[in-house]
Amino acid sequence: MPYTDHYERDIYGIIGFWVENNYDHGRFFDREISHHEMELARANQHMIQRLGTIYEKTRLKTEDPGKLIHEAQHATHEFQCLLTHTLDKALRCEVIISTPQALLDHMIREAEETVSVFKLLQSGNRVSPADATIHENYFWLRQMADHLSFISHYLDTSNYELHDQVRAMTKKFENLFLQANALRTMIRHPRKEILPVLNQFNLMVIKETKALEAFKLELDDLIKQCAAVTTSPPDLLEHVAREAHHLWRNLEDKVIL
Predict the structure, then answer these.
(1) Which among 253, 249, 121, 254 is positioned nearest to 194, based on CA atoms?
(2) pLDDT at residue number 217
(3) Smallest Cα–Cα separation from 212: which of 253, 183, 243?
(4) At what angle do helices 196-224 and 129-154 cross, to 10 degrees?
(5) What is the model's pLDDT at position 9?
(6) CA-CA distance, 102 to 210, in Å (whole number)?
(7) Which residues contact 166 (CB under 8 A, 6 or more apart)?
(8) What is residue 155's three-state secondary structure?
(9) pTM
(10) Other residues' Cβ atoms within 10 Å of the Cβ of residue 64
(11) Distance, CA of 215 to CA of 210 (rounded, Å)
């Protein structure tokens, strides 16, 4: 099934996209906190409720955008701090959770990116198309490769064909991320135009990310039908498909949103 890009790219829609991402992360994390970690569970539940309330405000579109960005920025920063503290404890084996450390780091990076996007919105500055696509590739291609690793983490080992597909796509997106990093340093400031080599890379990423989005949605259907043996949350694949859609659309529009 195709993913429906249901949010408008107005100020409320942009805020809503990022807040929903962090809200989802909180919900997914909630499933993996041990019942022994009551304080952590309560703190995370508080963040889920807070981010959920802000997300609902973006859907209603009645609150002042400047005030909403400020509220969303502070809530996201607090969530980022909670995840960072948890990751530090996890690396010291001082907390009982089933979330991989790499997944905590992944969520922290998205929280940091959220705050950066909100700061960009507050400043009113514009990013050049070349800078925008280089940034989006560098940030999101790592997240896409992560998604595939986490899908593999949740898939049961009995899914041999699915694991083969995931491994092949993981290698592809790891290579794309390495190429994005190379272009980021090769094409130096000031980036006044999208050079042919960058344009060709963007087209390649758009093509592969659309294919990845389709794969995620196909697997999402299987999971929701209980037709794939997995421990994945029912809506995890829809979440990561939404982010894949966001990447290729941003590259087509040559923007950071």
Answers:
(1) 254
(2) 95
(3) 243
(4) 30
(5) 85
(6) 25
(7) 148, 151, 152, 155
(8) strand
(9) 0.95
(10) 8
(11) 9
**Rounded to 5 degrees, what angle do the CA atoms 112, 238, 183 make?**
50
| Cα separation, 55 vs 20, whole angstroms | 6
Q: Which residue has the tokens 């997300």?
A: 55
Would you say 180 and 134 are in contact if contact means Cβ atoms under 8 Å apart? yes
Within 10 Å of residue 10's Cβ, how many Cβ atoms?
A: 12
CB-based contacts of 123: which residues, under 8 Å, 6+ apart? none
Say which amino acid occupies 19.
V
- The amino acid occupying position 40 is L
> Is the distance from CB of 153 to CB of 171 less than 8 angstroms?
no
Other CB atoms within a 10 A radius of the CB of residue 196 amount to: 8
Cα separation of 109 and 98, whole Å?
A: 19
- Please report, as a single letter, which amino acid is at residue 28: F
* Helices (runs of H) and strands (runs of E) counted in the chain: 8, 0
Tokens of 103: 């997944």
From first to last of the 257 residues of the chain, give the pLDDT tens digit: 445 566 688 999 999 999 999 999 999 999 999 999 999 999 999 999 999 999 999 999 999 999 999 999 999 999 999 999 999 999 999 999 999 999 999 999 999 999 999 999 999 999 999 999 999 999 999 999 999 999 999 999 999 999 999 999 999 999 999 999 999 999 999 999 999 999 999 999 999 999 999 999 999 999 999 999 999 988 999 999 999 999 999 999 999 98
Q: According to the model, what pLDDT value does residue 3 have?
A: 56
Map tokens 């805020």 to a residue.
Answer: 15
